[in-house]
Amino acid sequence: MNTLNFILGASLQPNDFTGFTFFIGSVSMLAATVFFLVQHGQVDKKYKDSMLVAALITGIAAVHYYYMRDQWAEGLGSPTELRYVDWILTVPLMVVEFSLLTGVGMAKLFWLSVGMLVTGYFGESGVTGMLDAQTWGAVAGLCYFWMAYEVGALRALSDGMPSGAVGDALASAKGKIPAAGKMLQWYVLVGWSIYPLGYMLGTDGWYSGMLSGLNWNMDIVYNIGDAINKIGFGMAVWSAARD
Amino acid sequence: MRFSSPFFLYFPMVSSHNGLLTSKIIGLIFSLSLIFFDVGDSYSSIIFIMIMLSIGIPHGSVDHIIAFLNPESRRFSSKLHFFIAYISLIIINVIIWVFYPFIGLTIFLLISCYHFGETQVIGYNSTKNKFLNFVVGANILLSLFLNNIFELQEILVDFKLFSTLDLSSFEKIFFLLVSVSILMMTIVHFDIKKKVPLYAELTILYLIFYHTDILTSFSIFFGFSHSLPMLLMEYEEMKEKSFLIFYLKTLPFTLLAIAFGLVLYYFNNSILTTDNLILFVFIIISSLTLPHVFIMKDFVKSK
Description:
The complex is a heterodimer of chains A (about 240) and B (about 300). With about 240 residues, chain A is mainly α.
């Protein structure tokens, strides 16, 4: 085993559950990437871009989880920066999946994801020197809710709920797309909610005090949530694409 | 040549351009190796030299043949005419750099944006939309520079307006966010046949730009996303019996280009660059690039 350690900068300590979730995150994302690439060759031509994007999302995440595991194992603390790098690159790709399945809404979803990421970053970093974390967070949250509305996330609960153009297109699509769309809507509604929650719980001035009282580690939530969201997202697309 | 390995499915949209596909896969594997084996920035100069000598310079070393191959590109009445025009452009560019470095840099950036973008869109869109070519190239260079902006300030130390900018309050990630946002705007608002695959490929490039230093970033992009695809397309166009024969044909002008660099370095002085080797190398590249851009513009017209 030691012979393989030249690849890794540092080893995880025994009983380091958080570090283990970084490791699991990296390995599961890598496995999912291989799976999606293999499936890319099996699916119909119209789904090939979707499978490619699914593989790219997990591939990018695998690289970053590898870095994050290393940073954590070296005792450098929570890898917030690397997490943001991962999100900046993968969130737009995730919203693209909706457009690839429906053929509508790419511009709007792109704009909203830019808005969410930029204002979220401004709030967490304080780089602008203007406004407080709550205000920036509110704008980022607004972008998230708008995006959730556009893709019809509430329709995961009931078909009669309001939805934007993308959600309507998902519902009226042929084949397995409506069922896959429903799974994606669940991911946006429940899975993606960990990000604004993490923002509120982890940013000073909001509810950061709650975490210290609970002795809770947001990295574990993010690691498990990320793996479920990213791999699950790809699996939902794959379920629509397979024969 | 057909690929069955899943790795070669990474860029299925360019399956008709095997050269593009092959080189980008090689670049991806190379980049991932750098990341996973943690090669570190100290080897960036060696990586840069290896890639420039083996792929970068050779891809422009058959311009004198390419210029006469494509019927659409025959704008030179003779080889002599071609060489006079070609060498004159190189000399003019060096003179501009010596006396007006800011103009030299501006010309280099403008033509690079167009040239890099033009070859980048092959497989995703026609190269006829010149503005799109320019914007895609500008996106790539912008991302390369923004994601390594603190290093760039050290390289362009003579350009006081830029190098003295206080960017200390900005984290590196801010610049990644800016470059990704601009890319998204570009993809959304331009009429591109294969938007998502182009966006996906550029995302991989941005990931590499963020995680590697400026020289390695440039080497990987220039080598595997630009030069190697062009080299393989030139090989296809020239219809040589084997790649080795084709590659041997690139050698004379590759060696001449290296000699040109060495001669210029010998006369290097305070007017050009004193101790800024990276800037000096970029001046050489920009000088060799200027005439090459015009030849490639015709070459990729029908791609």
